[in-house]
Amino acid sequence: MTNCIHDHSRWGAGDQIGAAHLLTPEVTLKGLRNVRDGEILDLSHVIENGAPRMAPNQSPYHMQIGPTSEGSIRRRRAIGAKNDAGTNLERIEMTTHVGTHIDALGHCSIGDRLYGGYSAAETVDDFGLIHLGIEHMPPMVTRGVLIDVSRADGGDFLEAGRGVTVADLEKALAQSKVSIQPGDVVCINTGWGRFFMTDNARYLSGEPGIDAEAARWLTAQDCVAIAADNMALEVLPGTDHPEIVMPVHQHCLAEAGVHIIENLVMDELVEREIFTFCFMLSALKFKGATGCPVRPIAII
Amino acid sequence: MTNCIHDHSRWGAGDQIGAAHLLTPEVTLKGLRNVRDGEILDLSHVIENGAPRMAPNQSPYHMQIGPTSEGSIRRRRAIGAKNDAGTNLERIEMTTHVGTHIDALGHCSIGDRLYGGYSAAETVDDFGLIHLGIEHMPPMVTRGVLIDVSRADGGDFLEAGRGVTVADLEKALAQSKVSIQPGDVVCINTGWGRFFMTDNARYLSGEPGIDAEAARWLTAQDCVAIAADNMALEVLPGTDHPEIVMPVHQHCLAEAGVHIIENLVMDELVEREIFTFCFMLSALKFKGATGCPVRPIAII
Amino acid sequence: MTNCIHDHSRWGAGDQIGAAHLLTPEVTLKGLRNVRDGEILDLSHVIENGAPRMAPNQSPYHMQIGPTSEGSIRRRRAIGAKNDAGTNLERIEMTTHVGTHIDALGHCSIGDRLYGGYSAAETVDDFGLIHLGIEHMPPMVTRGVLIDVSRADGGDFLEAGRGVTVADLEKALAQSKVSIQPGDVVCINTGWGRFFMTDNARYLSGEPGIDAEAARWLTAQDCVAIAADNMALEVLPGTDHPEIVMPVHQHCLAEAGVHIIENLVMDELVEREIFTFCFMLSALKFKGATGCPVRPIAII
Amino acid sequence: MTNCIHDHSRWGAGDQIGAAHLLTPEVTLKGLRNVRDGEILDLSHVIENGAPRMAPNQSPYHMQIGPTSEGSIRRRRAIGAKNDAGTNLERIEMTTHVGTHIDALGHCSIGDRLYGGYSAAETVDDFGLIHLGIEHMPPMVTRGVLIDVSRADGGDFLEAGRGVTVADLEKALAQSKVSIQPGDVVCINTGWGRFFMTDNARYLSGEPGIDAEAARWLTAQDCVAIAADNMALEVLPGTDHPEIVMPVHQHCLAEAGVHIIENLVMDELVEREIFTFCFMLSALKFKGATGCPVRPIAII
Predict the structure, then answer these.
(1) Could you report the predicted ipTM of this complex, rounded to two decimals?
(2) How do residues C270-295 score in pLDDT, each as one tens digit?
(3) What is residue C182's three-state secondary structure?
(4) Which end of chain A is more exposed for a tag (fewer CB within 10 A), N or C?
(5) Quick check: C50 contacting D, CB < 8 Å?
(6) Nearest to A60 among C60, C66, C68 (CB)
């Protein structure tokens, strides 16, 4: 950890955004230069009741409609309204780690230590993180890079438990003739996303994903975020399971200050072999939240 | 209603996205041409416990942290983990109409009739809208136009109950030498947003906003969405209150298929007199939801 | 339905409590006369995350702790407190039909018609039932009668889909030498309760339960409530499935005004062959709710 | 604390129910001997949206209807049902400390120490208390004693901030010629309950209640629970505010193992001058919960 290029001192003690400091206007302009046709590709899943979740930490998503047109019209008539304006709303109960989502830097700790040297005991307050909540994350408009490790591996998808190594990443990048640049969002396609809502039991049974060394290799290249088409970015069960749990989360979030994006949808990028694109994502500013469901897009 | 340029037949029976059909690649490219420096301005509020809401339809927002680093480390140690990976999450309970948010076309009805000719009785299902839910709304990357009616009126903000008329809009547009073009997102600044979370009682007591004719004038110019720095876009209490309730919502959503964005933050645009910009917004695909909290941005 | 002894006219139009009118002080005293030793038997399950539910109508139960001792002590120290008073609370999200629970009369309709002749369209308001909510149900202190149909059948439990008939009830009552009296709460043991939280998949796959004629036979004897050790009191799949859905619910609640209690725990009554006892239940007055989790007890 | 009759060693280390050990069959029979007429008095408030709460610890109560008769009939018709069985349910989001409720012994700590010597850090788990949750509390059927300190004071209600002392309790008990016996539930009427839902701002602005010495005097007489018609049982602001916060909670729950019941409704007892009665309460077994809304009753 001490050799990490993104160690806590890089952006100063008490920093709250980590590698997002790399999101300069120049990086934004560079990202936008990837736009040619103005076509927008959606990189997110629909979020609905029954969405897959890693229990118990990721708790159930539940949505119900109410109030309704019918009820609101009845209430408004009772106070004299004549234009029958019906209003429909709903109630959503969720964790922010549902569907396609981004992890806030405060999502993960190494013991009591959070990114920036914050103490978890003093930061994780009952009604939200005092520091490192998702509201601090700036919007991302930058270059996205697709690393299709599934294709490089020769199949439609990698199996659960298959660790993605530095060599795998290098091979896929070489095939697509792309190299990572500072400020990029790296999008790793394992093919595992095909089981999201089509076979949740399998989707949750484990997953292919990067190993800890691959994570360090990626953050060392100054990407601002790493995304994948699975629940947790990292290989599950992990390489040293159960002694070592979630090492990629610990490194990316708590050490390197690099955001993690999960359950990303790259199908169209993969099919059309689009390896670089303009990537956009803006997370809701839920104060003190540990993440946020997002709808990132690629503009090509 | 029958003379409305955006009537239900314009995009065909059963259409689900209305004016969002105008969001073509060309419009996206045109929107992006407003970017010069690559600077990103955030147009949204922080969402937190105690966020203002129009009761009872807009129900409370509540967020609590849990599980925590401490608990997850304890549970993981119990199964043999040695790297003390702590995970923080939270539970959010909300309606989608909290903070800066967008209304889905199915949010509002005229009696039983929703946009596209759908029947509310057959569309408003217990677990989400069967049609016209927010998941259908495409991401918006287009030109944004600021109409600063407060400035044009000569003050810092308009008072609650002050209707914004077509003349007000025309005056403000003339001052800034901008005209609305098809595909634009129109952003109306009344100055009322200064009371969001600083004086919620006042913020909710009423608001300045557009009247029904102004709404029709705007939708007739083929904007894809109308945004404002207040709770409801339209003047409250309404011009014909209580006989006529929420006529602007009825027109924009149920007739014209034009999305409404509320509680937008335009302070920096206003201060720096930026009247046109690249506007970006991508709503989460909560299946069947009647809206979505959003974090729109301006790129300049 | 027209021959039902408990038809809507029995207690007058607009009645809200149905057979609970039978809960007179005399019936209460009679119930208390079943107490000999003062021993209390608990008739309810523990309610916890993962509780069985009939999706989608019965939505998930979710509970999380927060605020915590740790957080509240930190906040109180910050305002000068020195006695380190820690306060733990939690957040529960649920339907009232979780665990051992009682159904309010307004839980079930026959088309638009609810008990007492109320229209569902006019009664089922967005924020609660306008009539027939659980807050109207008086506390029950009366005689409880155990009908152990499983034992009468010769086994530990009946199989899913096994309808319990009038003959089954009569046989079990004869064996225990008990007859139903006005004001009784009838408790039917099928043995199916053994799968609650031990094998939820099986518990929810169907269930043994009374058929529609048995329900009519029971309500005709003026019981105030019918309880069972399963999810729905009635046999599932029903006798005429799928043409006829939930006929026992329709009869008991919407016609007869007899409350239904589900997921009751009768193990100790069964084992000790206690066929009559003092039954006590008081449902929370959640305004407009369609039921309530309860903790009924037997005093013997 | 060391002189407390109910110290942690009384019931043995690791005890989970405290003074509820006093609820023997004999105490139950003694409680039932207070029944003469079989009349039941309800001692609880209706729970509804907008219920008073001590923010932020007590979080909002929110209830919405759904699914509905209309939706469920539509879904059932789609699978072939012909009897139009409509089912209404709701969604409740709450803390257990809403309306008339009981505090679990694990609700309150003195630093890291909970009742029974448990460590809060090891007991307060993310998904519920590992020890001392409300599911451990046995049902209460015992004698209730009304102490009407408001009447003894000569008025309709005591003012907020008025501490109720041992002398106040003794005076009221002397006037009603009642003395506390082991196993009793003591019900203290301050008159403050009149502001529940009639003037919530006032109800929450402070309250009359017992001081720490009065609490110790009560627990020393072996009552099993202390109830009051206010939010917190104890005087607010407290005698030594802000240095000493919630000392009555600390003593009753964490030291003495005596349950606290809040927002009790004693109006009819007070009006009819019923000073002893059979008290019944059975809290739901929400696993690991820190309390439970309850509907206690008096049988007379």
Answers:
(1) 0.96
(2) 999 999 999 999 999 999 999 999 99
(3) coil
(4) N
(5) no
(6) C60
